[in-house]
Amino acid sequence: MSIKNKMRKFINYLKESWVELTKKVTWPTWSKLQNSAVLVLVATFILAVVVFVMDFAFQHLMEFIYAL
After folding, report:
1. How far is CA 32 from the centre of its chain?
2. 48 contacts 56 by C-beta, under 8 angstroms
3. Less crowded by CB within 10 Å, the N or C end of the chain?
4. Who contacts 28 (Cβ-Cβ below 8 Å, separation ≥6)?
5. From CA 67, how far away is CA 59, in angstroms rounded?
6. How far is residue 41's CA from residue 61's CA, in Å, rounded to a whole number?
7. 0.85 cut: is pTM over it?
8. Has residue 35 got a pLDDT over 80?
9. pLDDT at residue 68 in the model
10. Cα gap 19→34, rounded to integer Å
């Protein structure tokens, strides 16, 4: 395969990608995007708290066991 042919294929790929991104993809509204971001932040915070509580409990459990 020649370099010219590879370049044509690559340029065609870029053009098709651009068409797909601009014409075929359904982008969320700004409001939906903000709601999703807030949901992700809240879920991340809750997960971090759960991991912290588990770590804290396990640390104290191990300290209790080692003190025996």
Report:
1. 16
2. no
3. C
4. 36
5. 12
6. 30
7. no
8. yes
9. 87
10. 26
Q: How far are the Cα atoms of 23, 29, 31, 44, 55 from residue 36, in angstroms, in the given order?
A: 23, 11, 9, 12, 28
Report percent pLDDT > 90 for the chain.
Answer: 93
- 């903000």: which residue's tokens? 34
* One-letter amino acid of 30: W
Separation between Cα atoms, residue 53 and residue 50, nearest integer Å: 5
CA 19/CA 13 separation, integer angstroms: 10
Tokens coding 62:
């191990």
